[in-house]
Amino acid sequence: MHLFSKKLILSAVMAGATFTAQASSHREAPFITENPKVDGTDLYLFRSYEPGRENYVTLISNYSPLQDAYGGPNYFSLSPDALYEIHIDNNGDSVEDITFQFQFTNTLSNNGAGITLPVNGKDIAVALKNISPVSSSEPGSVNIAESYTLTMVEGDRRSGAKSSVINVSNGGGTTFGKPYDNVGNKTFSTESYADYAKTFMYDIELPACPQGAQDGRVFVGQRKESFAVNLGEVFDLVNTNPLGPVDGEVNIIDDKNITTFALEVPIACLTNGGSTDVIGAWMTASLPQVRVLNPTASFDQPNVSGGAWTQVSRLSMPLVNELVIGLPDKNRFNGSEPKDDGQFLDYVTNPTVPPILEVLFGVVPPTTDGRPDLVATFLTGIEGLNKNTAVGEMQRLNVTIPPTPKAAQNNIGVAAGDAAGFPNGRRPGDDVVDIVLRVAMGALCHLPLGLCEAADAPSGQLAFTDGALQSAMQFDDSFPYLTTPVPGSPNEIVK
Question: How far apart are CA 108 and CA 111, in angstroms?
Fold first, then answer.
């Protein structure tokens, strides 16, 4: 096939999917763009590959996309009105069996008065979040303290048995702190941001887990954007070579940050007493159903919220709401649960991208009736790898497959022989853009999976790529794996 035709194919794939996102799942549906603090961007699910932590699963959910590090003065706090959740299905029915709930409180310093300065004999509240260097030894230098509680729910996320997760690092309480964002090198001049943030990584106790499987770790805070995509060129009619260097250096969002929820839990806590080898996971965010704006807004009460929790964000497998779900149903998908994914089945079994390619460019799309390759990828898991009895869009992880050390990981995951990688869960270094593009064009038909035949997918062996580098080597090999956020001011202190 001529290279020009290949570029048109990838262009049509991206355009024909009504792709509204700005990255993995950043701003992926119309309504969520109005609520960036609860906009989930990426979910990672993998057996911990930090040396000595192989008996744990790491769950990472990212929110609040495309943070410009210099975006002050209020930066990127989380919403105290929201409920952030990570759900686990461990019996194969597409219904949560375990949920981890995060709820936040934002507290002004000085007993709610904020930091003040004496001006003309009066104590006047300052306008900024800090007016002096910040370090772990000077927590009072931050004007707003963000904290959260972590609750484990067994059974239904709303009516199940709840237990508070214990902060072992801070003497047994149930409150955890979130570090101040990396506003710049002068603010963090007395202690590096990396060292400061480490003091917000906590050892935890999970009382509801089985004996011997109650320890873990948690961190919530700003990290460097973990996703990579050649964004500008891809959406400029694929102004790049889709069959060029697979791991190039162009990543338009490389200077952005996100807010990370990282949780490490023993495998034995997640597997229903060891009765399953495959767990499913997804992340959500919910807001109260009713919100009334306060015409005389205060710091503590800019609005009045009430009513049932209403889910407004959902994410599991990457790129589903962008490349699979049609524009009319994107908001509905964000409010749905995996057990109800039958309502979206037509988008998987009758994908819109191949007919668009055929009509516009005369190419031969994958011809397998019902696209069992896509059903396996998004809805059931793959036989012999991570399939279970559930039908629903979740990430699935076979916890019996050993983790691959960082240095040995292949960023194409299972398709390249690394069974510990995507779509068996997802690690930070898995190049899901390239993988999903190839799967959409029928790559699985060229593997001995029994899903479809190679002849069904003439373009299935082409190495489609956006050209952006995504590799395990870009990340740490220890919890929370995602790296120190980009500073808002990279300058050294001006003398």
Answer: 7
Profile the chain (495 residues) by mean pLDDT over runs of 10 residues: 33 34 49 80 97 98 91 92 97 96 95 94 94 90 95 98 97 96 94 97 98 97 85 51 62 88 98 92 96 89 91 90 82 93 91 60 76 93 92 96 98 93 96 85 90 92 80 96 95 63
In a domain, 387, yes or no: yes
**Contact assessment for residue 433 and residue 319, using Cβ atoms and an 8 Å cutoff:** yes
| Whole-angstrom distance, CA of residue 102 vs CA of residue 86 | 9
What's the predicted TM-score (pTM) here?
0.91
**Residue 421, domain extent:** 3-474
442 occurs within a structural domain: yes
- Summarize the chain as % helix, strand, coil (round to 5): 20, 25, 50
Element spanning 256, H or E: strand 256-266
Comparing CA positions, the residue from 271, 277, 220 lying closest to residue 479 is 220
DSSP labels, 404-424: PPGGG--TTGGGGT-TTSTTB
The residue behind tokens 């410009």 is: 68
For residue 485, is it within any domain?
A: no
Determine, yes or no, domain membership for 480: no
Question: Mind giving me the DSSP string for 320-362?
Answer: HHHHTS-GGGHHHHHT--GGGGGGGHHHHHS-SHHHHHHHHH-
